[in-house]
Amino acid sequence: MSDWLNPGLAHLWLPYTQMKTAPAPLPVAASAGVRLKLADGRELIDGISSWWTACHGYNHPHIREAVAAQLETLPHVMFAGLVHEPAARLASRLAALLPGDLERVFFTESGSVSVEVALKMAIQYWRNRGRAEKKRIVCFRHGYHGDTFATMALCDPEDGMHTLFAGSMPEQILAELPDTPEMAAAFDRLLATHAERIAAVIIEPLVQGAGGMQMHDAATLAFIADACRRHEVLLIADEIMTGFGRSGRMFACEEAAQLGDFVPDILCLSKALTGGTLPLAATVARRHVFEAFLADDPAAALMHGPTYMANPLACAAANASLDLFAGEPRLAQVAAIEAQLRDDLASCAEIRGVAEVRVKGAIAAVELAGRIDLDAMRRRFPELGVWIRPFGRIVYLMPPFVIGGGDLATLTGAVRRVLTERAATL
Fold first, then answer.
1. Alpha helices in 85-160 (DSSP H)
2. Domains in the chain, please, with CATH?
3. Which pLDDT tens digit goes with each residue over 16-72?
4. Which residues are catalytic?
5. H or E element: which one contains 138?
6. Strands (DSSP E) found in 141-286
7. Phi and psi at residue 152, in whole multiples of 5°?
């Protein structure tokens, strides 16, 4: 380990990390199932699925074999003027799984870029229809949609992680989530007042992820969709985190669809799309959005094209991941995880310094009050044999769907223990 760790750390720049003061990163040598194997021989139960991606656990043989087979024939080819079977199959399968006529799939490599493409689609949709003044985006407090400049502009400007860049990003319209009658009326007034310049509303359905794991109900989504229709505004659903079973359904939008006509105009996917194997993202548009780009004028086309878009290896992994959702009881596993998270973490609400406990599907968030030493908690969890990485005021769990009850109990027990230890210092 010493032959690569220390020389490498001298040149690495880690994400979201104050490199001067943060604890040293843990060297990982291998992964399997729900465990990370460290270079020093320790094993950690992964409670956050590598930023919410490894839904089937690590090194699932079906995904591994699919990627290996694809590597033998076509590792990569440009996607301009050329097309290949893994991407075509994946696009067809996603269209069949998604609600309504969400049927045109544009592939990228990361969630942030999938949102960037959604913004381009929304703004150019109106421009192509002769309404170029509609170019602002409505986003919500506690929202998070990515780290690029366009997506940072959609994040919470006060509580988000991007306040450093205030004033240097495009100006968008921040709204409160319309989850009360008063906020619903205010949101409707906002759209009515500014509809002539609003291209789209963007929302993380049911759970706002990196902005603090805030949760809302399906009725709120249904209201937002209805307001967008009435005021001629597109609706973008950012399912980068919630997509592929995490909320308890294959896609969080399905829960709102139970209440009526809820089909977002554009939907963003990434993270668990490949089962945590390779980078891939998708921006999926409804038929009427796609048709607005069809014209004799080349300038009406969508001008975007990542170099590695629709990478065949990543598409093969995603197709294999969808095989597992079709053939293994993933949603039933999520339901079992949700029930155990509710039971195991209920007592955390009584611990001093805990403000609230929230659970939705295979997502649990414990919101803290008072003084928080993130670095101390991040050091403590691995000492207990688990990989849990709190952020902001949140200690959260988003384990792989294949986790067993015993391993999940180890995760929830570690959360209770660390929060109890913290309470003694407050």
1. 85-97, 111-128, 149-152
2. 5-56+329-423 (3.90.1150.10), 63-327 (3.40.640.10)
3. 988 998 888 999 999 999 999 999 999 999 999 999 999 999 999 999 999 999 999
4. 16, 144, 238, 271
5. strand 136-140
6. 173-175, 198-203, 207-208, 214-215, 234-238, 266-269, 281-286
7. -60, -35
